C-alpha cells in the first residue's frame, strides 16, 4: 500500500427509527490494500457500504471517498461497486449485458473484453445470463464494477451463497485485483475468507467497530468472532 487513505469515515451512524443500524463507525482504507469488513448478519456491513457508495445518507458522521463526497459524479467515476445482487437482462448474454453498461458509462468496447477476461468469463461471454451459475453472475457483477477501471472497488459479501467452486473463483479474483494494486473494500461474515484474501480486517458487530487488525494478527480474534456467530470458510 502507499499509505494514502482512499476511504476516511468518522463517526458514521445510521438510524432507522429505534434501530441503530450503524453506531459511530470509524474506518480508513488505504490505497492498494484489500480491506475486509467482517461481521455476522445484521452487524451493519451493508448499511455502511451503502453509505460509502452514496446509496443512502448517514444520520451522522463524515465520509470522504477518494477525497470527495460519496455519490458525487467525480467519486462515482472512480469507484466500482457491487452492493446488491447485480441486475442484468436474463435473456441477453453476459457480453451484451456488459456492452450495454459500457455504452451507458461511455466506456470503450475493448474494455468489455478486458474485464470479461479478468473475471474469467471470456469462454462463457456469449451464453445467456440466465444460464450462468450464481458464481458466474456474481463475477459478471464484479466485471461491471470494473468497467470504468476504478481505483476503488467496493463489494458487499461477494461470496455469499456461492458453492465452494464459486467461492474459490471469486476469492482468486479478489486476490488478483489486490495484486494488480487496486484498492478493494469487501464485506464478509467468514473469518477464514478474510484471512485468505485481505491485508487488513475491521470487525463490526452490533453496528460498532469492535477491532481492527492486520490479517496476521487476526488469529487471536477467532474467539471473538465465533462468539458473535459460528463461522466457517
Ligand atoms: P447482512 O449480512 O444480513 O446483510 P449486515 O451486517 O449487512 O448484515 P445490515 O443489513 O447493515 O447488516 O443491517 C444492520 C441492522 O440494521 C439490522 O438490524 C437491520 O435489520 C437494520 N436495517 C438495515 N436496513 C434497514 C432498513 N432499511 N430499515 C430498517 N432497519 C434496517
UniProtKB/TrEMBL annotation:
Keywords: ATP-binding, Nucleotide-binding, Transport. Signal peptide: none annotated. Residues 7-231 form the ABC transporter domain. GO terms for molecular function: ATP binding; ATP hydrolysis activity. Belongs to the ABC transporter superfamily. This is ABC transporter ATP-binding protein. It comes from Kribbella antibiotica. The lineage of its organism: Bacteria, Bacillati, Actinomycetota, Actinomycetes, Propionibacteriales.
